[in-house]
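Key result, reporting period 2: structure in, sequence out.
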């Protein structure tokens, strides 16, 4: 019998561990707690107490309305070139007058040394205090830009009441805000006239305007959703706003009411006043009893703007019974048009302030706004790049508000000429001014990219044809 010889085993050589590089993620989430910037870093507010700062009336009285007041606040932190740049914009280009609450100014260059360069680069400054050097000189306005780019005034069914969508209306209660944003889509009506824009004026007394709204809504039971806006509802005396909302709640067919207020971020002190909180609770309680969804829509464009006071105002609204607090931002170059900026903002909104990221609109085609606008393809890329990071319910939709069409997700276009920057869109309803238009639902409606973002051939085409 043959014996099997044992097989000699040779130990495997010991391998030296090799570090395998990791690709990482395009965006790395890091929780960032909210901080209220120190307002005493500004020379003009060196002696302002917390009690003053958290007082809504102090905030309103000390809003920055002109260059002289800005100088008092900033002192010598920025140099004369900035003020000259700002004056040039105010005299010839600005579509909105200056109005910046201390709360908003305090979120500009919040945690680094204030210098002229840092102030110019600040994303909040870029849309709240625009200067001439921000704007484009080749194409400051698109050839198709207009004062009322969404034709809201054309669709008024009563003064200040826009009926664009079949089941929804926009109620503009007034034409003022606690703060004026440079990119305002309602720049034809809202705010003071500027050298560049002679504003429209509301003619009716508020009580008559509100009566007309209520009468229209009672006569049109197909409308179930009212966006109560302006301007900004924070500028409506609370007793008047509460009366209007209670009248809406008496209309059986109204099922959704949304209060539009940038002041939740720009002037949170207003929404923390005792009389406002108590009144909002009465409205919320009545809405809940009648099965109506009451929400607040605010407008935050950058992470810097979210502070503990903003979070407190949002949480207070939720605590007294408002169903949701949602954010509708605007995409703007130099402000937030990167995936990182949008995600930073959304995590601060949803995770730290209890505000739901809802929409990001493409900046509308108003005059002198081309330096802010982004092309449709860029908005599509941003929608792609922010997916998968946020909870699904808190992932905002990026939308294009197409003239005569309305909000459309940026991927819903029918055709896109990238060379000339013209996208074409369709719709599935008629606006209030198209009731007799039998072919409105078969038309294609155009939207236009900023010309400076086009290839050279596209820019040359517009140069040759824009006067046509």
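The corresponding designed sequence is given below.
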């Amino acid at each position: 019998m043959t014996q099997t010889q044992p097989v000699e085993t040779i130990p495997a050589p010991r391998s030296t561990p090799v570090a395998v590089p990791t690709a990482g993620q395009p965006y790395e989430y890091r929780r960032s707690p909210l901080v209220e910037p120190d307002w005493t870093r500004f020379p003009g507010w060196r002696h302002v107490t917390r009690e003053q700062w958290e007082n809504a009336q102090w905030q309103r009285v000390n809003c920055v309305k002109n260059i002289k007041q800005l100088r008092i606040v900033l002192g010598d932190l920025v140099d004369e070139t900035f003020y000259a740049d700002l004056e040039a914009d105010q005299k010839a280009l600005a579509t909105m007058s200056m109005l910046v609450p201390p709360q908003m100014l305090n979120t500009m260059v919040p945690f680094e040394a204030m210098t002229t360069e840092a102030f110019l680069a600040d994303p909040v400054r870029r849309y709240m205090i625009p200067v001439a050097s921000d704007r484009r000189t080749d194409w400051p306005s698109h050839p198709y830009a207009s004062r009322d780019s969404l034709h809201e005034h054309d669709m008024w069914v009563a003064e200040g009441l826009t009926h664009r969508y079949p089941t929804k209306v926009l109620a503009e209660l007034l034409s003022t805000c606690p703060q004026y944003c440079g990119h305002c889509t309602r720049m034809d009506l809202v705010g003071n006239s500027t050298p560049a824009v002679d504003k429209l004026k509301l003619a009716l007394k508020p009580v008559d305007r509100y009566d007309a709204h209520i009468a229209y809504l009672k006569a049109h039971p197909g409308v179930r959703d009212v966006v109560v806006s302006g301007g900004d509802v924070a500028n409506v005396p609370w007793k008047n706003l509460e009366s209007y909302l209670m009248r809406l709640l008496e209309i059986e067919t109204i099922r959704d009411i949304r209060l539009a207020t940038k002041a939740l971020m720009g002037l949170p002190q207003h929404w923390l006043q005792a009389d406002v909180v108590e009144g909002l609770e009465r409205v919320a309680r009545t809405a809940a009893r009648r099965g109506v969804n009451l929400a607040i829509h605010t407008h935050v464009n950058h992470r810097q703007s979210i502070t503990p006071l903003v979070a407190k105002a949002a949480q207070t609204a939720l605590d007294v019974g408002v169903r949701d607090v949602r954010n509708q931002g605007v995409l703007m170059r130099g402000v937030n048009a990167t995936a990182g900026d949008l995600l930073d903002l959304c995590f601060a909104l949803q995770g730290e302030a209890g505000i739901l990221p809802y929409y990001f609109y493409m900046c509308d085609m108003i005059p002198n706004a081309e330096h802010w606008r982004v092309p449709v393809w860029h908005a599509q890329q941003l929608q792609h790049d922010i997916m998968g990071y946020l909870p699904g319910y808190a992932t905002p939709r990026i939308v294009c508000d197409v003239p005569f069409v309305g909000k459309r997700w940026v991927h819903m276009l029918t055709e896109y000429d990238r060379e000339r920057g013209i996208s074409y869109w369709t719709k599935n309803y008629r606006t209030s001014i198209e009731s007799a238009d039998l072919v409105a639902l078969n038309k294609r409606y155009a939207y236009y990219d900023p010309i400076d973002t086009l290839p050279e051939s596209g820019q040359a085409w517009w140069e040759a044809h824009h006067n046509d």
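Residues 274-289 form the longest helix (16 residues). The chain is about 30% helix and 15% strand. This case is discussed further under Risks and Mitigation.
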